[in-house]
């Protein structure tokens, strides 16, 4: 199987931006305030494993579910692109962070690994839509293997970042995290527009995606 470097880069950037390990790190600190490093490590691993299971589930059955309810991939690509663009706007104007912080204030469970960390912070609507869209870009084994492998790498990076989140918070600071979030938001906005253009092209509006 020939590796498509451009496709792999697109998958990595999309999944890293949507899952947003750096943006979740300070919220992880808030949710695990007062816990020992060992407890934080266990919660980080449990949360990322749960998110991996949810995303893999949609990777395998997401397109079949769309077919069952009569939604074509081009239509889902356009809808997903719009959803990702709204997510990018939230990141650029800090609304996404504010909503996440509100979720952490609503409930303070003893174990936040499933909710709100895994769902909806890691495996939220944007991540689920991205998995289905990216696999749809390369139907068959190539897209599935590439998306699942790179998503796994992003979630491993998420685990490591969460384990080191206290050091990251001191090193980068709130201003640094805000700057990184906005840069990632700009990248996601461009990628989401590309999804919409590809969906329109599949319907015959403009040139077909290569």
UniProtKB/TrEMBL annotation:
Residues passing through the membrane, by range: 6-31, 43-69, 75-93, 114-135, 147-168, 180-205
Cellular compartment(s): Cell membrane
Domain of life: Bacteria
Pfam families: MarC
UniProt keywords, alphabetically: Cell membrane, Membrane, Transmembrane, Transmembrane helix
Membrane topology: Multi-pass membrane protein
InterPro entries given in the database record: Multi_antbiot-R_MarC
Similarity remark: Belongs to the UPF0056 (MarC) family.
Protein name: UPF0056 membrane protein
Taxonomy of the source species: Bacteria, Pseudomonadati, Pseudomonadota, Alphaproteobacteria, Rhodobacterales
């Amino acid at each position: 199987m020939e590796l498509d470097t451009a496709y792999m880069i697109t998958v990595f950037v999309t999944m890293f931006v949507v899952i947003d390990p750096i943006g979740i790190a300070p919220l992880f600190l808030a949710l695990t305030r007062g816990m020992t490093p060992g407890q934080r490590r266990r919660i980080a691993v449990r949360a990322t494993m749960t998110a991996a299971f949810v995303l893999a589930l949609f990777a395998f059955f997401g397109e079949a579910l769309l077919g069952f309810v009569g939604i074509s991939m081009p239509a889902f690509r356009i809808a997903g692109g719009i959803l990702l663009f709204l997510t990018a706007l939230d990141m650029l104007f800090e609304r996404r962070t504010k909503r996440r912080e509100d979720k952490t204030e609503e409930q303070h469970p003893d174990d936040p690994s499933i909710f709100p960390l895994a769902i909806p912070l890691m495996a939220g609507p944007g991540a689920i839509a991205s998995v289905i869209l990216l696999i749809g870009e390369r139907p068959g084994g190539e897209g599935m293997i590439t998306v699942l492998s790179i998503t796994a790498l992003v979630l491993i990076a998420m685990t490591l970042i969460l384990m080191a989140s206290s050091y990251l918070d001191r090193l980068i600071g709130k201003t640094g995290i805000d700057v990184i979030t906005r840069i990632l938001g700009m990248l996601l906005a461009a990628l989401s527009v590309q999804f919409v253009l590809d969906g329109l092209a599949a319907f015959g509006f403009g040139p077909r995606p290569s």
